[in-house]
Amino acid sequence: MYKSALRAYTSKRIEEIERGDILVGIPCYNNEKTIAHVIQMVTHGLNKHFKSTKNIILIADGGSTDDTREVAKEFEIKPWQEKIVSIYRGPAGKGSAVRSILEAAARLEVRACAIVDSDIRSITSDWIKYLIEPILEKGYHFVAPIYSRHKYDGTITNNIVYNLTRALYGKRIRQPIGGDFAFSKEVVAFYISQPVWETDVARFGIDVWMTTQAITHQFKICQANLGVKIHDAKDPADHLAPMFRQVIWTLFSLMEENEEYWTKVKGSVSVQTFGFDKFMEPEPINIDIDNLVYKFKMGFKQFGAFWKDVLDPASYKAVKEAFRASNKRFNLPLETWVKILYELAATFHYWPLNRRKLLDLMTPLYHGRVASFIRESWDMNSQEAEQLVEKQAQAFEDQKEYLIQIWFQKKDNLKKLKLL
Question: pTM of this prediction?
């Protein structure tokens, strides 16, 4: 157990600064190639848009083994701004970095705190304005990001997180795990007080946790359109299976925690959006659809018998048909994907032991749905593909009663199959 994510030397620097108006935190780990550009845009943004306020930039490092901290220390910010380069304390992961930033913001009694990712190559000085202005000038408590992203960037958000967050909690927050947020001092104090910082939720899903908490505790929420997002995107066939398991774990854990809230929510509403008012086509992302289909089919061979037990008969039938289809005709239908995620959520809810293994067994189904999304959107530009994402989100809303039904009945079904 530990009482603070801030080390002694960081606390001393905070005492020297005493107070501030705005704090911008940059969580980082082995980002020596991008950290200087991010700091440059932050210091320029604060100088351009908030020069009359007392501003602090905090780099919260996770013990980088490259020169991230050295680059951050050497980069010169505006002389009337303060900079702190710190190694946070606590479990490895972004959650501990965020905790250290929030603690610093609380001690400095800032009026607005923003967090920006350290690997963003497309960040501009205006991002700082778009994130912080709604807090300082419009009375909002929580600002989530919207980006212009390539249609195959953010497959977990497009196929899972946006859909579930919108259907469960009734707010159309497009990027619940976007990584770039802003908070009022009330939200900062609330987050710090929560008993989450040494849990797996904080380690693997801090972004969606913060978004969900902002919704369920009735904070005033808006979105900031930041324009194009260009970062170190990854091919979902090769890199995103661990992220799938981590994000799904957090989403399902939050469903259990907030059951009384989301079971009463019907439909969804949009939230106010500020910032950039144009869509710019992002740079393309290479993606290997055949590899995705291969991983789905290998998963069916290994886990198909288990899927048959866990899924409803119609969903399993569609999964089996997808397995038998050629790569060119491969399709895991949207309606099936909605039911698969809802069945998985209900199964997770009652699964007594080794939940991580359960998610491992279901990961190939995610590969299959992403492959189908790629097939459907192949000839679309990113803006056209966005309409497909909205169609998916609406399908999750439309079938929410199915989720509520199986959420309370799944235990009996699993017992009959002797899976519990």
Answer: 0.94
